[in-house]
Amino acid sequence: MTARTASLWQIRQPSVIPGFGLALGVTLSWLTLIILIPLSGLVWRSSALGWATFWELATDQRTVNALRISFGTAFLAALINVFFGVVLAWVLVRYRFPGKRVIDAMVDLPFALPTAVAGIALTTLYAPNGWIGSLLTPLGIKIAFTPLGIVFALVFVGLPFVVRTVQPIMEEIDKEVEEAAATLGANRLQTIRRVLLPGLAPAVLTGFALAFARGVGEYGSVIFIAGNLPYVSEIAPLLIVIRLEEFNYPAATAIAAVMLVISFAMLLIINMIQAWSRRRYGYGA
Amino acid sequence: MEVRVQNIRKEFSRFPALNDVSLDIRSGELIALLGPSGSGKTTLLRLIAGLESPTEGTVYFGNEDASRKTVQERNIGFVFQHYALFRHMTVLDNVSFGLTIRPANRRPSKADIRKRALELLDLVQLTGLEKRYPAQLSGGQRQRVALARAMAVEPNVLLLDEPFGALDAQVRKELRRWLREIHDRTGHTTVFVTHDQDEALELADRVVVMSKGKIEQIGTPDEIYDTPNSPFVFGFIGQSNILPVRVENGQLWLDDRSIGVSAPGEADGPAQLYFRPHDVELLDGGGCIAGIVVQTRRVAGTRHVELDVGGANTTVEIELPPEKATSDRSRLAFRPTRWKLFRD
User: Fold this and answer.
1) DSSP character string of B184-247
2) Are A190 and B102 in contact (CB < 8 Å)?
3) What pTM was computed for the model?
4) Domain ranges, ordered by start, for chain A
5) What is d(CA B51, CA A24) in angstroms, rounded to the nearest whole number?
6) What is the pLDDT of residue A12?
7) N or C: which terminus of chain B carries fewer CB neighbours within 10 A?
8) CA-based nearest distance A182→chain B, Å
9) Residues of chain A contacting residue B72, judged by C-beta atoms under 8 Å apart
10) Topology of the domain covering A71-235
C-alpha cells in the first residue's frame, strides 16, 4: 500500500517541509483562475475575429499610434526611473541622515495612492496655468496634455518598483568588495562603474521590467495628464475603454491581444537576460 | 619593503582599539599578528593598509611617511577573510583588475596584463580556470585567486586578514604550507592576521602576540613558545598549567611541600608557577608535585592525565607517553622541567 502511494508521487522528494502536493495544487488552480482563464478568453475572443479582420483592426493608424505611445512612454519612464531609482536606493542604503526613514516611507507612496489622485495632482502642477507649468510655458516647454506628461505620470508610479528591487541587493554588497577595489588602486568612480554597478545589473533589470510593465498597464494617472488627443497623446488602455464604450468589442480585443503579445515578448526577453546574468554572476545560484 | 609602525593609537568613538603600538617589519619578512578577537590585530593591519586612519602615530613604508597617503596610493596587496572577489568578473579579469584600472601612462599593454595575470594564476596553481567565475570555485580556490589579484599590482607589502579563516581544516593546512612556499619564491614582505596559534607558529618568521590593543610579545615562533614573557602569552599560546606557589629561600613550595624546583635569585613571596603539560618528568618521591588521577584521555600520540594536586586549588594536566597506563584514583608524582614564575 505504502509502496503504491510512493510510486504515485514520484515528483515528490522526501522532505522535511510537508505539503508540497497541496501547495502546488493550490498555486496552479489559483494561477489558472486568476491569470490563465481571463487571458485565454482574450486570445479566444480575438482569434474568433479571423486573421484578416484582426490585422485590419490592429494596424489601424489610431491603434498603432496608441500602442506606440503606450510602450514608448513606458520605456522612457522606466529608463528615467532606473537612473533616479538607483541613485535614491544608493542614498537610502549608504548614508545616514536625519529624515531618512521619512524618505524611505515616501518611496512607497505611489504604491498606495490612488493613481487618479496622482494624475490630478500632477495635472494641476504641470498644466499651463499650474505652479510648475506656468514657469515652463514661457520657455516653450509643455508637459501636461502631451506625451511628455504621460512620461511624468509613469515615472511617478514606477519609481518604487526600481527602488524596492535594487535596495535589498545593494544592502547585500559587501563593504569588503569596495575596499578590495580601493587597495588595488581603483578610485571611487572606477569602483562604482566597474565593480558595484555590474553587480547590481540583474536587480536593476528586474526593477526596469517591473516599472516598464506597470507603465504599459497604467491608466488612472495618465488619462488626467495626457489630454488624450487621438494619434498624439492617447494611450492604448484608454483606446480599449473607448472602443468598449462604443460597443466595438472586436477592436477592443484586438488592441488588448496586441498589447498582450508585445508585453509578453518584452518581459520574456528581459527575463532571459536576467537568467543569463544570474547564471554568470552566481546571484541566487 | 620595510614597514614601520610608530606609536600608533586608534580610537573608535572613544573606545581605544590600539594603544601606543610600535612595530618594525623587515623587508621580505613573513610576520603574523596573533591574538584573540578584540585584540586589535585586524585594526593594526587595516591601519598599515590605509583602510583606517590612526588617531595618533605614523606608518612608514621604507623611509616614506605613508600615513598621509590614501589606500590607493600606498600600493599594497590586501587579502580579505571572505575573499571579496568581484563576482561578475572571470578569474582572469579579477586578477587583471589592479592593472587595467591604472592611468594610461602607467598601464601595461593588454597583452602584457594578460600574460602577467596568467603567470600569477600559474603561481597560485589555478592554470586553466581563468575563464571561470568566482561562484564556480571552491573556497580554497577563491582565496588563491584573491592572493593572485593582490600580487598583480606588485605591492609594497602584502597584507592578509585571516586568509584561511573561512576554510575547512584540511584546506587550511594545505594552503598554509603553500603560502609559505609562495612567500619564499616571491619574497614579498607579508603580514597576516590570525587567531589560530598553530597557523602563526608554523608559518611566520616572527609572531606578534597582541592583547587588548597592545603588543604583548614579538619574537620567532620558538621564542614565543619557549620563553613567553607574560602570563597572557603563556596562557594564550599552547597548553599551560598554573599553580599558586610560594618562594622561600630560592625554593618553590606548594602548600607545605617543597616541589623540588629551585628558583635562584627569586624574591620570597607568593607567585604563579606556569608550565606546559609536556614539560614534566615523573618521579618516585622526594621533592615533587603529587596528585590523584582524576581522568585520563588518549589524544593521538600522547596520554593526557588530569591530576588533582590537593588544596583548594586545582587540577593540572600533564602529558605522558601512551604506554604509561594509569588508573583513576591512583597517585602520581611529577616535577616540571621547564617553567616560569609570574607575580601579580
Assistant:
1) HHH---EEEEES-HHHHHHH-SEEEEEETTEEEEEE-HHHHHHS--SHHHHHHSS--EEEEEEE
2) no
3) 0.77
4) 71-235
5) 50
6) 57
7) C
8) 6
9) 182-183, 185-187
10) MetI-like fold (1.10.3720)
